Amino acid sequence: MTDTASPATRPQRHRHDAGPTIAILRGGTGDHVEDVIRTLVDSGVSAIEITTNTPRWREGIAWAAERYGSAASIGVGTVLDTRQLDEAAAAGATFAVSPHTDQAIGERAHERGLGWYPGAATPTEIVRAWQLGARAVKVFPAAPLGGPAFLKQVLAPLDFVDVIPTGGIGVDDAAEYLAAGAVAVGLGSPLVGDALTSGDLDALRGRAERLVAGLSR
Q1: Which of 7, 82, 95, 153 has the most CB atoms around it within 10 Å of its CB?
Q2: Which residue in 87, 138, 152, 209 is the catalytic one?
């Protein structure tokens, strides 16, 4: 049977370009953000997301964008309104992630030239986020929703959507999500651990290198 789907129902991909994994930095004291980012980038992680509920997140984005802007994509996470997006853009962020889909945030991200990764869970939410111009859709929370098996079933009819699952994904099962059709995976505490509070960079380096090696196979 010939595929006669029109561009309106089967749009072109928007092309996520932040690499196969996004490290999500959330919480902590704000004292170890620079060391954590340095360790992650040195270990081969090519995208860093600093959430707005991380102390001194604006300063962290500005430092990372200036220091690593040519080596990694630096973005902001947990964007809940356009003000936060504007502040992140001014600090040098190149992409913005939200736990939900808000059209106003998406429109502002487009105006500011930022990639927009809104959160969605159901097929209806995923398609709506894509139609609103998401660069890729953050499928959240991925593990509780059913993990790679859920993702594979959802992407069977929605194979035109680029998705980035996050939420409960472990270092050693991240590759399964790519195999199920994700363009990237987002990892927070399973990757970062307590490095933002304790400054344990050796353990962080080990997890990051294991993640990068697993995703490159």
Answers
A1: 95
A2: 138
**What is the enclosing helix (H) or strand (E) of 120?**
strand 119-120
d(CA 133, CA 56): 29
- Helices 82-91 and 103-112 pack at an angle, to 10 degrees, of 20
Could you tell me if 98 and 118 are in contact, meaning their C-beta atoms sit under 8 angstroms apart?
Answer: yes
Residue 87 annotated to the active site: no
What average pLDDT does range 52-59 have in this prediction?
Answer: 97
Neighbours of 151 (CB within 10 A): 22
As a whole number of angstroms, the distance between CA 146 and CA 141 comes to: 9
pLDDT tens digit sequence for 182-202: 999 999 999 999 999 998 999
What pLDDT shows up at residue 69? Answer: 85
Q: How far apart are CA 92 and CA 86, in angstroms?
A: 10
Q: Is 31 helix (H, G, I), strand (E, B) or coil?
A: coil
Catalytic residue among 49, 59, 125, 209: 49
Any catalytic annotation for residue 176? no
Distances (CA, A) of 104 to 78, 133, 153: 15, 11, 30
Quick one: pLDDT at residue 12? 47
Phi, psi of 126 (to 5 degrees): -65, -45
Number of H helices, E strands in the chain: 11, 9
pLDDT tens figures, 96-150: 999 999 999 999 999 999 999 999 999 999 999 999 999 999 999 999 999 999 9
